[in-house]
TrEMBL record:
GO terms for molecular function: nucleic acid binding. It comes from Aegilops tauschii subsp. strangulata. PANTHER family: RNA-BINDING PROTEIN 48. InterPro entries: RBD_domain_sf (IPR035979), RBM48 (IPR039599). This is RRM domain-containing protein. One of its GO terms (cellular component) is nucleoplasm.
């Protein structure tokens, strides 16, 4: 689990697929990540749940001052859950 001083907001979301919009939830958006260059640590933390395909900052996303928003994509649905 993340340290207690980190209050990240984690949202799962799905992208439309041929099977319907709710079938593919391998994606997470993590908000309120301190803007301290901790993207690598965030990737390491989430990779403990399973292999990641992507872990990158979302520059176009609105966020609080001094915080970042990250996009995380897992290889498998069960890992994202």
């Amino acid at each position: 689990p993340p340290p207690q001083h980190c209050r990240w907001l984690i949202q799962s979301f799905s992208l439309p697929t041929r099977r319907g919009p709710q079938t593919n939830r391998r994606y997470l958006i993590v908000r309120n990540v301190p803007s301290l260059g901790c993207g690598d640590e965030l990737g390491t933390l989430f990779s403990s749940y399973g292999p990641l395909e992507e872990c990158k900052p979302m520059d176009a996303e609105d966020c609080e001052e001094y915080t970042d928003v990250f996009f995380i994509k897992f290889s498998q649905l069960s890992n994202a859950r």
